[in-house]
Write a structure and sequence with these properties.
GO terms for molecular function: transcription corepressor activity. By secondary structure, this protein is mainly beta. The chain has two domains: about 1-30 and about 40-125, no CATH class; about 145-429, YVTN repeat-like/Quinoprotein amine dehydrogenase (Methylamine Dehydrogenase, Chain H), CATH 2.130.10.10. Helices cover about 15% and strands about 40% of the residues. The protein binds 2-acetamido-2-deoxy-beta-D-glucopyranose (NAG) (5 copies).
């Protein structure tokens, strides 16, 4: 089974020990995570090991367990019986005799919160109507819920529909796939693009979605009538690398190409409204108000005012190309990811307020956790990094066999999706 239950027992001692470990490791070698197998064993105080699953705490046990490349730092990990979320709560129950549950929760809150005083607000966010049994009292979990695999094609983009019921993903296969989050059945859209699909986004509150491609086009689809695309937008003279719908004026669609051209389209009239320069890798509208557009081009992120088309900020500080950007749900913060660095910017000041370096992993994608606003999920090579940007602490979760090219989240279901060059898409909660 490839299912793992990853329980975050983030007590302070563990975190401190781990950061010491990391420092030592960094001094010892500057290379990636490949040869760090076993360091996790030195991290956890042995008192935390549940006697029921002793083998999973050895490197041998992990090798048997599946696609693990290394023991995640800061994590206590238990081989699950393969039943996913249900076993997750069982595992949590099993854990209770082995630790002081009250203090465990305190420690989890402490990891996730801004400061000790904010913990209640963060857990209030979990008590949504869609979450009948809020995990707050049981601790924070982040485990693989499901996995879907293409036959032999890298997946490079994914996005949830507004209601969280469908995950769309696409990539080298040249046709988008719709994954139903209730039945877990998949359905392909027709193969109309002639080259790789680079981005897929749902129109907010709609059954429409759009895809962008190396074939220089953007296509509009209606998934309730999926026999063929509704429209093909042409005009880009280079590979279209990214697209996004405006969160409020949802007839407004934006796309950018490899030459830095950003095109605004009216979806209803099928017309190009405006062309500006400034985005080569990815563009994303600010959520909720849609006042700003973030555009990544080489090592710079530009923030454009969508109404006036003026540039509000030029965010500089990355040394290499910015691969992706993501906003938090409030639209106050923007994260930008280059291979070696993640920066979080405040859009009211234009300042970088938090940053974390990759320590050898190759960062590529990011998404803010749907339930924990301080937690940024970063996609790298094979592993996800869960970074509490306020506390500047992170945990590594082995996730894929290749680069994690794209991440998505649904505030409705609390689900995170990861799309990878290993030909698979995974769901996490
Ligand atoms: C999508 O297709 C359905 C079914 O044919 C139709 O009722 C709906 O109006 C279409 N929506 C759009 C935006 O074209
Ligand atoms: C598009 O590219 C071709 C060659 O690559 C060039 O001849 C043409 O002028 C370009 N068109 C525009 C509008 O930039
Ligand atoms: C999916 O794409 C839409 C439109 O581009 C965007 O508004 C929405 O935030 C995206 N969903 C997620 C969960 O990222
Ligand atoms: C989408 O639906 C939600 C919930 O009904 C609503 O709050 C939001 O304003 C809608 N967004 C748009 C762009 O219509
Ligand atoms: C965040 O943590 C990393 C590694 O633990 C450290 O190198 C970096 O200086 C810290 N950043 C801040 C702003 O404290």
């Amino acid at each position: 089974s490839r299912d793992f239950v990853v329980l975050f027992r983030t007590n302070w001692r563990l975190l401190q020990l781990t950061s010491q470990n990391n420092r030592k490791r960094k001094q010892a070698t500057s290379s990636g995570p490949a040869n760090s197998t076993g360091t996790g064993n030195t991290v956890g105080p042995s008192a935390n090991s549940p006697p029921s699953t002793p083998s999973t705490h050895t490197p041998e046990g992990l090798a048997v367990a599946g696609n693990m490349r290394h023991v995640p730092k800061n994590l206590m990990m238990y081989g699950a019986d393969g039943t996913g979320l249900a076993s997750s709560s069982n595992q949590m129950d099993d854990l209770e005799p082995f630790g002081d549950v009250g203090s465990l929760d305190d420690n989890v809150e402490s990891f996730l919160s801004n400061d000790e005083g904010d913990a209640r607000d963060i857990f209030a966010a979990l008590k949504s109507p869609t979450e009948p049994n809020p995990p707050a009292s049981k601790g924070f979990t982040f485990s693989e819920v499901n996995c879907w695999r293409t036959s032999n094609s890298k997946i490079v983009c994914c996005n949830f529909s507004s209601d969280g019921k469908i995950l769309a993903s696409a990539g080298h296969e040249k046709k988008a796939v719709l994954w139903n989050m209730e039945t877990f059945q998949t359905q392909y859209l027709p193969e109309e693009h002639s080259l790789i699909i680079t981005d897929v986004r749902f129109r907010p509150n709609s059954t429409q979605l759009a895809t962008s491609s190396f074939d220089r086009t953007v296509k509009l689809w209606n998934i309730t009538d999926p026999a063929f695309s509704q429209h093909t937008f042409t005009g880009h003279n280079y590979s279209v690398t990214s697209l996004d719908f405006h969160p409020k004026k949802t007839e407004l669609l934006c796309s950018c190409d490899g030459n830095g051209e950003i095109r605004y389209w009216n979806v209803a009239q099928h017309s190009c409204i405006r062309v500006i320069k400034g985005g080569t890798a990815q563009i994303r509208f600010q959520p909720s108000t849609g006042q700003f557009l973030a555009a990544a081009s080489e090592s710079v992120v530009s923030i454009f005012d969508v109404e006036t088309h003026t540039k509000k900020y030029t965010l500089q500080g990355h040394n290499t190309d910015v691969q992706s950007v993501c906003w938090d749900n409030t639209g106050e913060y923007l994260a930008s990811v280059s291979q070696d660095l993640v920066k979080v910017w405040s859009v009211s000041s234009g300042e970088c307020i938090h940053e974390v370096s990759s320590n050898g992993n190759k960062f590529h994608s990011c998404v803010f956790h749907p339930s924990y606003p301080n937690l940024l999920v970063i996609g790298g090579y094979q592993s996800l990094e869960l970074w509490n940007m306020v506390k500047n602490q992170s945990m590594t979760v082995p996730a894929h066999d290749g680069l994690i090219a794209s991440l998505a989240q649904s505030p409705v279901t609390g689900m995170v999706a990861s799309a990878s060059h290993d030909n698979s898409v995974k769901l996490w909660k």
